Structure formats: C-alpha cells, structure tokens
Amino acid sequence: MSFWDWALTAYDKPGVPEACLTLQDEHGFNTALLLWAVWANPDRETLANGVQTTVLWDETVLWPLRNVRRALKGHRPPFADAPREGLREDVKAAEMRAERTLMETLEGFAGPAAEPDAKGALTRAAVAWCGQAPAEPLDRLARALA
C-alpha cells in the first residue's frame, strides 16, 4: 500500500486527526513526517534525509500555503464572502497537493516497514525533527494508530 493510501486510512482512525493537529499546532511537528516514520520505520540516515526534505518543503511551500488559507478564513471586509471562500478552497486544494507531493517524496526514500513500531518510530522522528519528543501527544498518536 502506498504511503498516501496508508496515511488516509490511518487518518480515518478515531483520535488520529486530533493527535496530529495537536502535534502540528502545539508542538510544531510536520505530521506527514511523523506518519511516514511509522509507515517506513526508516534508519537514521534515511530519517535525517526525510527531516531535511520536510523542513525545506515546510518553509518554502506548506507553511506559506497554510498561512494564506488560514488568513482567508472568516469574513474579511471589503472582500465579498463567496469569492474569498472560493479562493480559500483553491488554496486548500493546493495545500493538500503540496502535502501529497511531500508524502510521495518521502515514500521514495523508504518503503513500508515489515512490522512498524509506532511509538519508537514517532519518538525517533520527533527527536530528529526538533531534538525532543513530547511523550503524551506522541503516545496518544501511537495508540490511535494501533
């Protein structure tokens, strides 16, 4: 199963979206990278390559799109709501395509693990991302993915 398809299935599990958004919005993680770490359980070098690639993509593509999408949310006089919301939906689609592009790129670095170790993979990815692993939100995501 491709990483994209696996991630869509994983994201449908109860608790996964909330855990991912907490890790993204409150701790600054890229959830695609965390999910990829569980899916692929990459070695240290491959994980470092994934982190480097994700940081670059976040800074140049994902966060600018996400910030524009969020800025377009809600009433913004003097702009009419319908065209503003239409633009927001276009930006949202571009953001989703950017997420998929990142995920397809990460998939090319490493295939699916034979037996993923969700907790260990998430912890290694978190440390590789920012040097620390917030135990409670990572535990919550690992449990939701099980």
As a whole number of angstroms, the C-alpha radius of gyration is 16 Å
Total number of beta strands: 0
Low-confidence stretches: none
C-alpha geometry = elongated
User: How many helices in DSSP terms?
Assistant: 7
H and E string: HHHHHHH
By secondary-structure content and strand pairing, the structural class works out as mainly alpha
Strand portion, in percent? under 5%
User: What do the pLDDT scores average to?
Assistant: 95
User: Structurally, how many domains make up the residues?
Assistant: 1
**Distance between the first and last residues' Cα:** 17 Å
The main pleated sheet reads as: none
Give the % helix.
Answer: over 70%
What's the layout of helices and strands?
Layout: H1 3-11, H2 16-25, H3 31-40, H4 44-71, H5 81-109, H6 118-130, H7 135-145
Report on this structure.
This protein has 146 residues and is an all-alpha fold. It has helices spanning 3-11, 16-25, 31-40, 44-71, 81-109, 118-130, 135-145. Helix 3 packs parallel to helix 5 and helix 3 (31-40) packs across helix 6 (118-130). It starts with a helix and ends with a helix.
